Amino acid sequence: MCFLHQERSSALHSFHGFQRLHGNRFIASFPSLHASSKSTSCLSIKCGVRFRPCIDIHKGKVKQIVGSTLRDSKEEDGSALVTNFESDKSAAEFANLYKEDGLVGGHVIMLGADDLSKAAAVEALHAYPGGLQVGGGINVNNALNYIEEGASHVIVTSYVFNNGQMDLERLKDLVRVVGKQKLVLDLSCRKKDGRYAIVTDRWQKFSDVYLDKEVLEFLANYADEFLVHGVDVEGKKLGIDEELVALLGRHSPIPVTYAGGVTVMNDLERIKVAGDGRVDVTVGSALDIFGGNLPYKDVVSWHTRQETLMV
Asked: 96, 192, 267, 286: which sits with the fewest CB atoms below 10 Å from its CB?
């Protein structure tokens, strides 16, 4: 992953680029977000692409679910949860596997707010302290608890993109509580009118914020990393969303991980090329440890080869 780490203009830390609706709610307009070249300085450059493992937890069990089907209950149109795989191994066992293989920065996602899922997530964090990020129901009241339980970062979407709109006060509150360096923004998105709209509430609700250069640059001032699921292809093993990967590779100024559609080893190379070596990758349902055909050990070997390219 290649990133030019810079100090950015303080103007980007204001509410510049948003229009107030009411109270503390804002919608994105981003008319002129750019940092002054006079106020930036190069700190470091690092290159390489990494495999970021995942542990998705639903009702206390490690599962692989088609995310776009995840709802609180069966819908009136007859749609229901589509589960690709359910493991007989615990979340902590997967955490230990990733620890043994030296995989850092994977994510534990609680696909529900039930106590069993929370307990399983905490067990995984205890098994690999500092090695995993955690998301799912994170808010200003519980974020620090998960950091104290061993999470390297907390991952947030719906709390910040509340009711389809950006709530900057909530985002700033999270930064005050855990710090920018402990916060990952989940910017998972779906295509809408030819653009990528951030989706929330189990990926069912479109926000009014679309991924582009200015949005990514603005949000980078409040997060250490981005996590982006290509929801239209996630969990379906239909191939990656190269257009989305390319957008992230071109415009994300901080580390970003893409998830969605990886099926074969060549997809990892396609992400590397499309993302210009700047986008990390998560693989879920396709892995043999999650019931798929792609050997986990082959992906780990690929990851190890990428590490030799780090400078």
From this structure: 192
User: What is the rounded distance in angstroms from the CA atom of residue 238 to the CA atom of residue 42?
Assistant: 39
pLDDT of the chain along its 311 residues, tens only?
554 433 333 333 333 344 444 444 444 444 444 333 333 333 333 457 999 999 999 999 999 876 545 554 444 343 566 787 899 999 999 999 999 999 999 999 998 889 999 999 999 999 999 999 999 999 999 999 999 999 999 999 889 988 888 999 999 999 999 999 999 999 999 999 999 999 987 777 889 999 999 999 999 999 999 999 998 877 566 689 999 999 999 999 999 999 999 999 999 999 999 999 999 999 998 999 999 999 999 999 999 999 887 65
pTM, two decimal places: 0.83
Distance from C-alpha of 126 to C-alpha of 129, rounded to nearest angstrom? 5
Residue type, 305: R
| Whether 110 contacts 134, CB under 8 Å | yes
Find the distance separating the first CA and the last CA of the chain, reported in whole Å.
10
Q: What single letter denotes the amino acid at residue 24?
A: N
CA distance 218 to 61: 36
The answer to whether the beta carbons of residues 198 and 188 sit under 8 Å apart is yes
Alpha carbons 6 and 231: distance in angstroms, whole number: 31
Q: Which residues pair with 117 in a beta bridge?
A: none
Residues 6+ apart with CB under 8 A from 73: none
**Sequence letter at residue 180:** K
d(CA 257, CA 230): 11
Burial of 163 (0-12, 13-18, 19+ CB in 10 A): exposed
